[in-house]
Amino acid sequence: MSEGKDPSAALDSSGVQSITSWLSHLIDKMNLDKIVYPFLVIVGLVLLLWIIYVICRFLIFRPIAKSQFAAKRKGFNQLLESRLLGSLATVVGIVVVDILLEVVPLLEADSLEIAHRISNALMICVIAQMIVRIARFADAYYSSLSSVNRDHAFGGYVTVGSFMIYAMAGVLVVSVLLAKSPVYFLTGLGAMSAVLLLVFKDTLLSMFANVLVTTGDLARVGDWITVEGTSADGYVIDVSLNIVKVQNFDKTITSLPTYTLVQNSFVNWRGMYESGGRRIKRSILLDQRSVRMLSENDWAPLRNIPLMDEALKLEKESVSDNPECSEELRITNSGLFRQYALAYLQQHPKIHHDAMTLLVRQLQPTENGLPVELYCFTTDTRWAFYEDIQAAIIDHLLSVMPAFGLRVFQAESDFAEPDPISRKVEIGVDSLVTFEAGQPPSPA
């Protein structure tokens, strides 16, 4: 052995040459056709790649991932779901096949070069896929942390990054197959950038909008959103790169470009569900001609109504400092009704009492009557139950109004009153039902 040569390299070279010579001798005995032989080589290498993939993924990587050590760690389950092991097994197979190309005999130099180009192109695609899957695995792991606890926290960045990685991989694959520098293709893309921006305008807008929607947590799958100017009013069922799908309450599906959520305003009802309270903001219109002062004689029948003591107390406190009431305490039937409604809501078991706003107020009188508005929050945010609670409260207050000598305003119809005096409502409690202790008042 001459000086300056690596003994191990010489040994490896001799080993490869011996294997190649043995295969050449074997092929010569088989008398294979020049056209059939390359085809058999391709089939054999593809079959070998598949065998290596199956061995690495199912006989090496998966048993490790499903071992007792891995089962105790959540990250390994996410690793399996990301299919990163499949990409790793493919990389091992391509490397082995690329090495074996040097051993296959009787391949022309041009055929061998083309085979290496294809092998390198496949390696670029698989590595790009592996990088994307690593990013998705990192996103899944980060999203599962207790401090984050939401799906696809980095979904937008992963989507945009995937688009860029696959675009770069496409350029590299073409450059490898054609044996050209990537700069050659990038120069051509630069000249076509204006056309590409015009063609992929919506895709680019949606791509960056997806980053804002997912990283800013503007909308998630399962959120109830209402988008103004569209028919979207329901639950989000999918947030993809280009499209946001919303299932409306009638089970129809509205598809919106993702950038719609960034360019226009929309309502996300998630905050309402997370707070545990759903707002009631409903007004009862009083006929202003039925509003009057109450005398001491009017109080006597009213005292028999449950919660009336609390309502009287609240009303007296509200007018006690009024100079007009210094000589004689004057209370109106509308004011007493308003305080009764407040006392009723304060003891209602389905209304938030402390954590959220609770009030009953008068609004600006109009030609349609005097609005008395209820503003409170129910403890049940489910739609059907919320509507039942709201309806029961309004029904009760409407039925109890005649006891205060009040009349609900209603637009005139073709009904002819026999006597205008029928508008007057006398105070009485005969129509009221008694209430059980600890239960909210309810109409008969």
Summarize the structure.
This protein is α+β, with helices and mostly antiparallel strands and 444 residues long.
Fold and architecture overview:
With 444 residues, this protein is of the alpha+beta class. It has three domains: 32-179, no CATH class; 213-268, SH3 type barrels (Roll); 276-423, no CATH class. Helix content is 53%, strand content 11%. It has 16 helices and ten strands. The strands form three sheets. Strands 4-3-2-1-5 form a five-stranded antiparallel beta sheet. Helix 7 (155-178) crosses helix 10. It is elongated and about 120 Å long.
Spell out the helices and strands N to C: HHHHHHHHHHEEEEHEHEEHHEHEEH
Spatial order of the strands forming the largest sheet: 4-3-2-1-5
- Total strand count, please? 10
In DSSP terms (H or I, runs of 4 or more residues), the helix count works out at 16
Major sheet, described briefly? 5 strands, antiparallel
* Uncertain spans: 1-5, 7-11, 431-444
Helical content class: 40-55%
- How much strand content do the residues show? 5-15%
- Quaternary structure annotation: single chain
Integer tally of domains = 3
Radius of gyration: 39 Å
Overall residue-averaged pLDDT value: 76
User: Structural class of the secondary structure composition?
Assistant: alpha+beta
- The end-to-end distance, rounded to whole angstroms, is 113 Å
Q: What is the 3D form?
A: elongated
